[in-house]
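Bench notes, afternoon.
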Amino acid sequence: MMPMKLICIGDSITYGYGVNRSQVWTKLMEIKLNVEVINKGVSGDTTGGMLSRIYYDVILNNPTHAIIMGGTNDLIWNVNIHQIEANLAAMAFQIMQNNIIPVFALSIPICENIVQKKWGFIGRFDNINSDIIKLNQWIRTFSENYNINVINFYPLFYMDDGNIDEKYYIDGLHLNRYGHEKMAEIINLEDY
């Protein structure tokens, strides 16, 4: 049996914007699972950009599994949610057609009050979390229909009172090292 090799394709949350390379969730997952993990996150990328690089960044690297995590930047740029869904579906289908096991990772919540100050110039953040919830729900439903595993990062960053725990964020959008540790903690080999 071929040893597990994971490629993670996504945006700045996958890349680990603002965090030391050794502290990014993908690196922590590699150490925890004792498998090869290749981080193909690109800060600022959209699902359209991810789809355009799926062949070179995922398929040509011949992994056993590919974790797909994206859509938040699309929502910030006001891309139609149906286009985001189509891009994610196309990625999953291309991955499966190449005998690679897809896994979706659900997007994390955004601290709307903090992120507007730092990143307000790039797009809209009002009601971003309700849009992320809608997209995450679509990913769950799509994944159930195609028997694709899902890693649910979204609830990790909420406190018991229903507020987002800001201590895990650098700027309301990106996670600090403790947020990345929290993501790596919930990933298990049995999930794949």
